[in-house]
């Protein structure tokens, strides 16, 4: 059974997708960028501030699904600039303390000019 996950504590989808999907005992989040859930505007001017907002958004989606950071098994991280890798890691490590499997790549652009986007696969 596929179940859509939605919460007002994270930004609404800005396209034809769900914040997350639950299938069996797994949850798959859509990528989160550093949007304020209330205004839909980018939060933060640097990678540290934007990553903090991304983590808050992911936490809200994971919580709404009945999961959490500690149940993450895989993350995929997208950076606008790989020079931000160390600063991104410093924030990421505060949230994903169980060190799930991860991919991290630099991309040409992200939605709304964000510096970072992260998606998560987690257990329930």
Order of helices and strands: EEEHEHEE
Tally of alpha and pi helices:
2
* Mean of pLDDT: 96
Helix content: 10-25%
Shape: globular
Span of the ends, CA to CA: 14 Å
Find the structural class using helix and strand composition.
alpha+beta
Mind describing the biggest β-sheet?
A: 6 strands, mixed
Strand runs, count? 6
Structure notes:
- The protein is an alpha+beta fold and 124 residues long.
- Helix content is 24%, strand content 27%.
- The protein has a six-stranded mixed beta sheet with strand order 1-2-3-6-4-5, with helices on one face.
- Strand 4 (72-79), helix 2 (85-95) and strand 5 form a beta-alpha-beta unit.
- The longest helix is centred in the middle third of the chain and has 19 residues, at 47-65.
- The two termini are 14 Å apart.
Short description:
The protein is an alpha+beta fold and 124 residues long.
């Amino acid at each position: 059974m596929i179940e859509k996950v939605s919460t007002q504590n994270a930004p609404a989808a800005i396209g034809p997708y769900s914040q997350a999907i639950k299938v069996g005992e797994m949850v798959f989040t859509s990528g989160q960028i550093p949007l304020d859930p209330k205004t839909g505007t980018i939060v933060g001017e640097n990678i540290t501030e934007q990553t903090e907002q991304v983590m808050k958004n992911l936490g809200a989606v994971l919580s709404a699904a009945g999961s959490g950071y500690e149940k993450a098994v895989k993350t995929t991280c997208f950076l606008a600039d790989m020079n931000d890798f160390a600063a991104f890691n410093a924030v990421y490590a505060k949230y994903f303390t169980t060190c799930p499997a991860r991919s991290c790549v630099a991309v040409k652009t992200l939605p709304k000019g964000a510096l970072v986007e992260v998606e998560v696969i987690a257990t329930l």
